[in-house]
Amino acid sequence: MAQSNVAQKPSDSVPDLWNAIREDTRWERGTGRGVRVAVVDSGIDTGHPDLKGKVRESVEAVAEEGKINFRPSTSGDQAGHGTACAGIITSIAPEVELYSVKVLGPNASGSGDMFLLGLDYAIKQKFQVINLSLGTTKRDYFAPLHDLLDRAYHAGCIIVAAANNLPYPSYPSIFSSSVVSVVKRAGDNPFNFGYRYGQVIELVAPGVEVKTTWPGGGYRQLTGNSFACPYVVGIIALLIEAYPNLTPFQVKTILYTIAKRNQEKAALSAQSAEPNKQ
Prior knowledge:
By secondary structure, the protein is of the alpha/beta class. It has one domain (29-268): Rossmann fold. Helix content is 31%, strand content 21%. It has a nine-stranded mixed beta sheet with strand order 3-2-4-1-5-6-7-9-8, sandwiched between helices. Helix 2 packs parallel to helix 5 and helix 3 (112-124) packs parallel to helix 4. It is globular, with a radius of gyration of 21 Å. The model is unreliable at 6-11 (pLDDT under 50).
């Protein structure tokens, strides 16, 4: 058979796969009911009116005789960071089952070893979604964190990690293959998140002047990548409620598809807002 010498355009030879995907928005009307979400952080104020009855278990890392063990936590949240994240998650998915894994102290700081063990605990419990609004810049933790994320991926745990607020990488947010990484932007619509193709930190979600829960029954407006992360956790909880058997790979694919559609809608809206040039 004779071969044609006419070069095909990419659009002639490659089908538009995006058009074959039909948008399903049923999950947006969910509540996250029954989805088990771990917040590895500074604890959660279980008595806050917005969180009362939503925290199924609270544990904290305790150093005992040279070892770190997890015990039931009664110390609450002195730093506020974990409570703030929990409030954002439940603002999107109000019926999730929250599990607090406390690894940070009153100043929202803690050791790398406690961080590793807290994440290890969450993976062993096979929580469906794990909120990591924390990280470490210490290279010594690169390999053990990478191993933990691989274990989480194969166990079906979806880990969402916040990017560092400072302009240098932190772990595990830069492990893009086995974690959903998030950076902040302005805006107040959690469903209108974006996707930065080719960037190490891939998803962009609201994280500027976010009003959320604070220990003692109050609220604060907070800014940081830490507070963009739980928005995406809430979205994932809605997706898992609608489709309980989703794998981490499938969840990431769906997030990217939704983000791409969001960006397409924004581009069309911007074009329609431009004055006609005759």
